[in-house]
Amino acid sequence: MEVKDYLRILRDEIHSTVFATVDDQGLPVARVIDIMLADEYSIYFITAKGKEFYQQLMNKQYVAISGMTSGDGSLSKKAISIRGNVENIGEQLLDKVFEQNPYMLEIYPSKESQRALEVFRLYQGNGEYFDLSTKPITRHSFIIGHSDNIEKSLEYGYYINEKCVGCGKCYTTCPQQCIDMTNVPFTIHQENCLHCGNCMSVCKYKAVEKR
């Protein structure tokens, strides 16, 4: 899938997501916020200027977002998490927000009341898509915008290096059995890895490293 597909799932299939920011003391604060719009490389949300959330966005210009689709049990769901930079675009696209999310008129029914709102855009960051309905599970990382630091963050996870002797201990402790033992050194399939760390904890040869 492309970035726009992940953002579409976030807007249409999840919609209500958990946003985390930090307060003046550097402590985490979380609340549920709806994803109002999405385009090829951005997502958009709104908040009122009088809220603490608004001030935290203006101060830090950074958020972490997480959401999960509905379904019959956890193993039928998909989850998306994103963290990145946001900017205030004021009343731009506010009319479009209400056009595409008419339920908001029940909360802010008049143009006068809607003046309390401003639109924010997440324009740069990194995200992760997690599909629990597949076996093994499916994990994909993606980038919104471009930044050297963001691109480096996509390399995180567990990797097997040249110290591997092919003993197979890592494979036996892997809950998803996502380690390819065809060749030595073995290879971890990153798209199926849970990042549990079992492989590194049992390898006495220090052939597994965390990046």
Automatic annotation (TrEMBL):
Keywords: 4Fe-4S, Electron transport, Iron, Iron-sulfur, Metal-binding, Repeat, Transport
Signal sequence interval, chain numbering: none
Superkingdom per UniProt: Bacteria
MF-aspect GO terms: 4 iron, 4 sulfur cluster binding; metal ion binding
Statement: the UniProt record of this protein carries the keyword Repeat: yes
PROSITE patterns the record matches: 4FE4S_FER_1 (PS00198), 4FE4S_FER_2 (PS51379)
Pfam family of the protein (one): Fer4_7
Keyword match Transmembrane: no
Boundaries of every 4Fe-4S ferredoxin-type domain copy: 156-184, 185-211
InterPro entries in the record: 4Fe4S_Fe-S-bd (IPR017896), 4Fe4S_Fe_S_CS (IPR017900), Fe-S_Ferredoxin (IPR050572), Pyridox_Oxase_N (IPR011576), Split_barrel_FMN-bd (IPR012349)
Entries under PANTHER family matching the protein: ADENYLYLSULFATE REDUCTASE, BETA SUBUNIT, L-ASPARTATE SEMIALDEHYDE SULFURTRANSFERASE IRON-SULFUR SUBUNIT
Protein's UniProt name: 4Fe-4S ferredoxin-type domain-containing protein
Taxonomic lineage from the root: Bacteria, Bacillati, Bacillota, Clostridia, Lachnospirales
